[in-house]
Amino acid sequence: MAIEGNLDYALARIQARQGQRLEEADWRRLEANRDLGLYLAAMRTTSLADWVGSFDVEHDCHTFERVLRARWRRYVEAVAAWHPIATQAWLAWLAWLPALSLLAPLARPEPAPGWILADPLLGPLSLGTPEERVAMLTNTPLAPLRGALATRADLSAAWAARWDDLRPALDGPALRSLARFRQTVRRHEHDVEHAVDGAEPLRSELARALLRLLRLGAGTVIVTLCHLALTALDIERLRGGLARRSIFGSTEAEQH
């Protein structure tokens, strides 16, 4: 059963978490460790320690990504639970964004890749025919997407439509902040799609824009959206660091 939260309490906790985020200098120091074991050891001394707590050098990229997806879901759900009940489902729906790109291929008849079978949610869904996969989706938190999966429609659009349906009543300033937030994210997605020289500068630009929106949205739930988006950027950077060191780390360490 959901427990009623309090917006002021939630935003105080969000601000505390924001104060723990790594600065660029911290990331540079961490990323100087090209060996996976050293990188993990260094990461465990930071505010991201809980995200890498069970990882070791024997894990592969698929394990890292599967666990990070699960920890992202738990984090979003925990943050949502700090808020008033009317806001909780809207925020919690953000937990499923990383699953969209993995869910889309299940609409096709090809067998799912073996590594997805280890995922506690997507693994069972990857079995059977596309029709059976859609049917199995009914009894999962992703059930609102089953129509889009069945018709091979845009899952991102279906996710966004459900998010709009879940949105709580917001006052004028919060609605304006939400519109700016969505415009900022859409612009980033467009820029990444058309990027020529890599996305890292664009992610840095997005982080700066989100920090500005966080300040402008003070006192509203938009602060939470900005915090979760910034956290997602941090986890994306962590994910890339783990993948590079898992695949190339030893070779790079020897070369340096």
In short:
With 256 residues, this protein is mostly helical. 66% of the residues lie in helices and 0% in strands.
Which features characterize this protein?
14 helices, 256 residues, globular, disordered C terminus, mainly alpha
Order of helices and strands: HHHHHHHHHHHHHH
Please state roughly what percent of the residues sit in beta strands, choosing from under 5%, 5-15%, 15-25%, 25-35%, 35-45% or over 45%: under 5%
Low-confidence stretches: 251-256
- Helical residue percent? 55-70%
> Roughly how many Å is the radius of gyration?
19 Å
Number of strands: 0
**Which whole number gives the mean pLDDT?**
92
The assigned structural class equals mainly alpha
What does this structure look like?
This protein is mainly α and about 260 residues long. It is about 65% helix and about 0% strand. It is built from 14 helices and no strands. It has helices at about 5-20, 25-30, 35-45, 50, 60-80, 85-90, 100-105, 120-125, 130-135, 145-150, 155-165, 170-195, 200-215, 220-255. The protein is globular, with a radius of gyration of 19 Å. The model is unreliable at about 250-255 (pLDDT under 50).
Topology:
Layout: H1 7-20, H2 24-31, H3 36-43, H4 49-52, H5 61-81, H6 85-92, H7 100-103, H8 122-125, H9 130-137, H10 146-150, H11 155-166, H12 172-193, H13 200-216, H14 222-255
Helix pairs in contact: 5-6, 5-14, 6-11, 12-13, 13-14
